[in-house]
Amino acid sequence: MRTKQWHWRAGQGWPVIEAGSQAPTVVFLFGGRAALEESDAIARLAEHLPRERFFGCSTAGEIEGSNVHDDTVVATALWLDRSQIVSTSARLSEAHDATALGKLLAQRLTTPDLKHAFVLSDGLQVNGSELARGLVAGLPPKVTLSGGLSGDGAAMKRTVVVHAGEVRDDCISVLGFTGAISIGTGSLGGWDPFGPQRRVTKSRGNVLEELDGEPALALYKRYLGPQAQGLPSSALLFPLVVQTGDGSAPVVRTILGVDEAAGTMTFAGDVTVGSSAQLMRANFERIIAAGEGAATASLGTSHTAPGFALLVSCVGRKLILKQRVEEEVEAVRSVLGDDVTTTGFYSYGELAPNTTDAPCQLHNQTMTVTTFMEG
């Protein structure tokens, strides 16, 4: 396994691209939506690398090594020696809901010796909980899964996915890894709950209607006070931790949109009736330390450094950390080592298992690390 990385900036373009004679197995592209859609970044990169091997998405921030950028494009070429990649995609219109889309994608991806699937999804129109549920149901039991929902900075207007070099705004893309490759995942948050626990008394999938019998949006606004004027983006600073009561680990949910007329809030994943919900706020040191914990979990019991790592963190963490945002990426690299190539993005939702033996599910406000090692 070997890698090369390049960084595009508006007004500067790409640096000199020397990729060698052998085409990379895959090129990951993470960038600002306008940079991917409106600039010549992809076209210029395709002059040196095969466009059909470009995969990625729009972001709320791009990760390049220990650096975090905005409205740029980070390209990371990956050459695999003893493993292979297969890919598939689906338009959102191909199924009636995200669960069915997940099952459809899993069916299309099925191939012998599949080890892991990495998914990149539209970030605003897809229920991430349903998507994860469908993929888990459709993939073979031993196949692991991770990924994220694409971003659009703090604007939350529209997101895009890059599949086989094509930029789409209604797409889910999945890469499958096969052969002699070991892949690990880790995910951790670091936020603190506060205030009373409320009961979810009315919801529809990822649309929260009532908490303790009160309109959910009105109750949430009372907690936010003056910051309620900035909804939905200000809600990224105050997510909910949701506990279903069935013994499963709690999950964090971030608001993607609000309906003022209906008094409801739409989340990136399910908020089930009967669950308990509690507001969360930032603990700076714990948020940064969570990067170290996620990286450690991704390595499992392995004592060999991986060759490559994909990082998916949440836009809410970036908004909280501000100028300290690179510290959480540095925390990941302090575990993986400076020789490991890292890339990734700030997202509207992260997909990963809670623990090694747990199924993949949607998270918000976490740092998720996926590590790759051949052999």
Structure overview:
The chain has 375 residues and is α+β, with helices and mostly antiparallel strands. The chain folds into 2 domains: 2-188 and 285-374, no CATH class; 192-281, no CATH class. It contains 8 helices and 26 strands. A hairpin with a 6-residue loop joins strand 24 (349-353) and strand 25 (360-363). The N and C termini lie close together (10 Å). The model has no long low-confidence stretch (mean pLDDT 93).
List its traits:
six-stranded mixed β-sheet, 375 residues, 2 domains, 26 strands, alpha+beta, 40% strand
Please, how many domains?
2
Instruction: Please count the helical segments.
Output: 8
N-end to C-end Cα span: 10 Å
Rg calc: 19 Å
Strand tally is 26
Task: Based on Cα principal axes, name the global outline.
Answer: globular
Strand percentage lies at: 35-45%
Mean of all residue-level pLDDT scores: 93
Major sheet details? 8 strands, antiparallel
Overall structural class, as computed from helix and strand content, comes to alpha+beta
- Uncertain runs: none
Helix content: 10-25%
Short description:
With 375 residues, the chain is an alpha+beta fold. It contains 8 helices and 26 strands.
List the helices and strands and how they pair.
Elements: E1 2-8, E2 26-31, H1 33-37, H2 41-45, E3 54-58, E4 62-64, E5 67-69, E6 73-79, E7 83-91, H3 98-109, E8 114-121, H4 128-138, E9 144-149, E10 161-163, E11 166-168, E12 171-179, E13 181-188, E14 192-204, E15 207-211, E16 214-215, H5 216-224, E17 240-243, E18 251-253, E19 255-259, E20 264-267, E21 276-281, H6 284-299, E22 308-314, H7 315-321, H8 325-336, E23 341-347, E24 349-353, E25 360-363, E26 367-374
Parallel strand pairs: 2-3, 8-9, 22-23
Antiparallel strand pairs: 1-6, 2-6, 3-10, 4-5, 4-23, 7-12, 8-12, 9-24, 10-11, 13-26, 14-15, 14-21, 15-16, 15-20, 17-18, 17-21, 19-20, 22-26, 24-25
Helix pairs in contact: 3-4, 6-8
